[in-house]
Amino acid sequence: MQFEVWAPQAERVTLQCDGVTCALERDPGRAGWWTGEAEAADGTRYGFAVDDGPVRPDPRSRRQPDGPNGLSAVVDQARHEWRTQWSGRPLPGAVLYELHVGTYTPEGTLDAAAERLGHLAELGITHVELMPLCAFPGRHGWGYDGVSPWAVHEPYGGPEALKRFVDRAHALGLGVVLDVVHNHLGPSGNYLPEFGPYFTETHHTPWGAAINLDAPGSDEVRAYLLGSALAWLRDYRLDGLRLDAVHALADTRACHFLEELSTAVDALAAETGRPLFLIAESDLNDPRLITPRRAGGLGLHAQWNDDFHHALHTALTGESQGYYADFARAPFAALAKTLTGGFFHDGTYSGFRGRRHGRPLDRTRLPSHRLLGYTQTHDQIGNRAQGDRLSASLSPGLLACAAALTLTAPFTPMLFMGEEWAAGTPWQYFTDHTDPELAEAVRRGRRREFAAHGWAEEDVPDPQDPATRERSCLDWSEPEREPHARVLAWYRELIALRHATADLTDPDLADIKVAHDAQARWLAFRRGDVRVAVNLGKEPAAIPLGPRPARVLATWDPVDVPGRDGLLHVPGESCVVLEQD
């Protein structure tokens, strides 16, 4: 078997394979590459040493059986026998579900999660969006401190378990999307700098030196990240990738890394005959990110839309701290603007940032499915001091209103696991750092961050305490009892309605009309013949819809259609979806 590694500054590179050490040779056709052959099979342990230094795992390792600090293991991708014929599932018309493998079940494995996929298929979900799976030190964590971008975290089950998960999902008609991190690597177990210029001091990020996307040596670094992305899609038959914090990718080259990535993914989609897509997390509010390359954009297929979340969150909760301040001044107006224009900050002044922010998107050209809308995500829950979900502070009726807005809005909807039954469990920030100094630094940093906002140290969960992760695991007995069962039934009804109603998947943002009364706390919008009305106030609201004939499509509480006066009477903290000629 041939082994290879990029180490452009090395004078000598050796391979340790199954306990035997041999020298690698420079590849005459590729500058900086070293190659050699050794006897190996699936599971064989190996690693590389640069200039007689310690043996390190392969930067392109597909498996780390003993964690990121151990030797790599050979993975024979052809060994897996795929059971499901899968032609793919495109993003338009999708309903996504963000899932963290380590807390979706108490077992915290891919195989255990696969056993619960039937719940998602019955719910009407189309795609499961897995939080990061690449290897990181320890057993439990969010996954954003990964250090082996090509390998599946071994405590989750490793590469074979991911293939079994994808096979099971596809058998149920579910696509699978994976969250990948290209903007940084974790601080522990990161050996890439020993091999080459994977990082650069030219730019600095919140995590230190930036990934080298534009300095000398960046061609190979970009190829490294592109290869990893394509490997997930090709070798594991994934349907898409979610790209973490692309605004933190420092790249000054004429062809941005994201454009190169979207070009490669579109080519792979054409080669495989399956629709593949890229979803960005971006803080820029720049529509060029999701504008096709032929129109001068970067060609990504969708992005998270935090503006919709922030507007909805402030309308529901009244919170106004931090970045919510910009939206809390007039939350109903902010929500109306996002429903009709996509972004709230589209060149407007942001008090939180102290400057103008964003850029308008062209509603006549950009289909609305390219923006993801959501009520809750791992970030918006887990980055709160106590990881409290909306269900900890809102009534079932307000949760139903949030669901109605998210699942009938023009954006591609996404749920966070457990949201569909108003889970009573929190989702807190937890880590399992094996480096004692790093563990203590994270613990102190977390408490210091929230102490600045008035939180007592004892009220901020210790990320390193195993109980913090255990509290965050879903309780699968909840969906069978009230009030969870009623909320779950409402989500099922709304998702089924979205799938069955053409107006609810119409991508035309320009066709949406919104009315609201901030004092009475109601908002209503029109999509084709569909009318959606939510009353976030405690008192009943009379919402003017007009006297045209109407029929109720879905309602949280019983309501009558508008009479001759054209008024729809909606109980307090309730919502309704109608069809009106």
UniProtKB/TrEMBL annotation:
Q: Where is this site: Transition state stabilizer?
A: 379
Tell me which residues this entry annotates as catalytic: 244, 281
A Gene Ontology biological process in which this protein takes part is: trehalose biosynthetic process
Question: Per its UniProt record, what Pfam families does this chain match?
Answer: Alpha-amylase, DUF3459
Q: Where is the composition biased (Basic and acidic residues)?
A: 53-65
Reaction(s) this enzyme catalyzes, per UniProt: hydrolysis of (1->4)-alpha-D-glucosidic linkage in 4-alpha-D-[(1->4)-alpha-D-glucanosyl]n trehalose to yield trehalose and (1->4)-alpha-D-glucan
Give the Glycosyl hydrolase family 13 catalytic domain ranges. Answer: 94-448
Q: What EC designation does it have?
A: 3.2.1.141
Please list where the region (Disordered) is annotated: 47-72
Q: Does the keyword Cytoplasm apply?
A: yes
Any GO MF annotation of the entry: 4-alpha-D-(1->4)-alpha-D-glucanotrehalose trehalohydrolase activity
Binding residues annotated for substrate, in chain numbering:
242-247, 306-310, 378-383
InterPro entries reported for this sequence = DUF3459 (IPR022567), GH (IPR017853), GH13_cat_dom (IPR006047), Ig-like_fold (IPR013783), Ig_E-set (IPR014756), Trehalose_TreZ (IPR012768), Trehalose_TreZ_E-set_sf (IPR044901)
Keywords (A to Z) from UniProt? Carbohydrate metabolism, Cytoplasm, Glycosidase, Hydrolase
- GO cellular component entries: cytoplasm
Tell me the compartments it is located in: Cytoplasm
**Which biological pathway?**
Glycan biosynthesis; trehalose biosynthesis
Q: Which family does it belong to?
A: Belongs to the glycosyl hydrolase 13 family.
Against PANTHER family, the record matches this protein to: 1,4-ALPHA-GLUCAN-BRANCHING ENZYME, MALTO-OLIGOSYLTREHALOSE TREHALOHYDROLASE
Q: What is this protein called?
A: Malto-oligosyltrehalose trehalohydrolase
The species is: Streptomyces asoensis
List the taxonomic lineage. Answer: Bacteria, Bacillati, Actinomycetota, Actinomycetes, Kitasatosporales
Question: What is the name of the gene encoding this protein?
Answer: treZ
